[in-house]
Amino acid sequence: MNGEGPGISTSTQDLAAPVDWQRVREDFPLLHREVHGKPLVYFDSANTGQKPARVIAAMDDYYRRYAANVSRAVHTLGEQATRSYEGARDRLAAHLRVHRRDLVFTSGTTMAINLVAYSWALPRLRAGDAIVLTRMEHHANIVPWQLIAQRTGATIKVADISADGVLDLNALERLLTPEVKLLGVTHVSNVLGTINPVHEVCTLARKRGVITVVDGSQALPHLAVDIPAIGCDFYALTGHKMCGPTGTGALWARREHLDAMPPFFGGGEMIREVRFEGTVFNDPPHKFEAGTPNISGFIGLGAAVDYLDALGMANVQAREGELLAHLTEEMRKIEGLRIIGNAPDKAAVVSFLIEGAHAHDLATLLDLEGVAVRSGHHCAHPLMAYFGVPATCRASLAFYNTHAEIERFIVALRKVRGLLG
Ligand code: PMP
Fold first, then answer.
1. pLDDT at position 7, please?
2. What is the pLDDT of residue 6?
């Protein structure tokens, strides 16, 4: 990272350094715009996060100064592009405490989970096998497994949650019978905000030889994620929710899996030698990265990781904890407002409904007040069905939000409630 860190006076991660959150906010150009003539309150970071100027600048710099393809060219531009692109892998690997060789770049979590489904699960699962998923999974961690189940004859079992949105570990353990081969669990729920005890879940699974796939999409923006400490087999993540560009993400996998898995896509970049009689594949992670990748995107992701590291995830977590406590306290005072997801361990995500009002109407009226929240099923139909609602509104925060924005949101919410009630 060049120069100063975000909102702090040192570029090294210093957990004790006081962060100037107002200055941090200045790093995000988009947050200064207006919507419907009112200052924007962006409470939709679980959908996609906003980008600091240095992430946008890193991508711009690539296109202006050294745009070239990676790996193939020996000329200066190609070498610079390759160094930047592979440098992003180094940074992300260090951020996650893993080895760069075990980190495959993907277009996002969806592709990462599909890679596990098609390269690991499809050749291995058989009729009679079972896959366990939790009730709070995003469709990205449900539908790929349904497709694999259809093709292999495996079945899917569901691990239940409490009314507060907490995973029932006893019930989960009972589900882990000998036919279960794979377990998919989200690290943080995109709807409920629940932070799942993924280390405990993976330990239970590992004891029984069950392979674990953790969906880290919503964890990376909020938590310091130490993949080896979790003890999973696969960890999927997406860049655009963690200050990075869209179309970026990664799959981390235990080395023995990556070595044993056949590639999912074939093409250039992923080979060592191609003859018409057969092909020798490149080593992981490149074995799984066919074709020209999203070079500028990953360079941007590298800058995003630098940004978060300089900020310090412990600082992010502390800041978001304060914002969440404030938001929840104020929302609880609003009559007729129901919060869906009250786990004791939560990220700054609050799903809610107001009696008598449809979620989309709420979100539309809030938008007129300059407040962006998401409404809908949040790609979690089974979870909506469990709570008996077609949709919710969701306010999702990031460290760049402020207490003043929470106050504005609450005023807007009260106004909208008055209009709809
Ligand atoms: N899992 C969870 C929990 C998510 O919130 C999302 C994004 N909404 C995804 C998976 C899919 O991520 P992407 O669309 O970036 O692949």
1. 52
2. 58
